[in-house]
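Example for tutorial group B:
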């Protein structure tokens, strides 16, 4: 019975720390929302690209925070494919070219796994690869129009 109490106390401590981290992250997200955005690149249902970018960045930060906070070594709370799609989507809306290797490195998973996921998402028509005309070793990545529309729909549903 004492072991159960000790374990419950440890869980409460972890939850308390997670709550504090979430509050700190929420403050960062709120403060980063005041940045200036260029003209809308994509407008959907009266929501311009600035708001879509803000929501996508918030979701990406929250997802990474969730993964870090709940990481007990098993990787159960990672959303690698979603995070890579969302990261690519954000770059698309900002008009920033992003390379496959950059997205793979930023995913937080082993490079070979990230590359495999990117290839599957490209085969499924979610992501599109295009060569860099000035450097054949680099491949640019972007979200397909269908994927971009679906992610935009998800982001518009967030309150």
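The residue assignment follows.
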């Amino acid at each position: 019975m004492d072991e159960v109490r000790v374990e419950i106390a440890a869980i409460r401590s972890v939850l308390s720390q997670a709550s504090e981290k979430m509050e700190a992250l929420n403050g960062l997200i709120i403060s980063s929302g005041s940045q200036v955005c260029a003209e809308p690149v994509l407008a959907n249902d009266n929501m311009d690209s600035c708001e879509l970018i803000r929501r996508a960045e918030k979701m990406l930060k929250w997802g990474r925070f969730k993964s870090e906070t709940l990481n007990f070594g098993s990787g159960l709370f990672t959303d690698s494919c979603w995070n890579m799609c969302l990261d690519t989507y954000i770059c698309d809306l900002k008009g920033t070219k992003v390379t496959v290797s950059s997205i793979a490195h930023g995913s937080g998973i082993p490079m070979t796994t990230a590359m495999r996921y990117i290839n599957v998402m490209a085969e499924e028509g979610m992501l599109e690869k295009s060569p860099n005309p000035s450097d054949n070793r680099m491949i640019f990545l972007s979200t397909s129009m269908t994927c971009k529309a679906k992610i935009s729909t998800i982001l518009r549903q967030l309150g």
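The first helix runs from residue 2 to 32. Compare this with the pattern of hydrophobic and polar residues in the output above.
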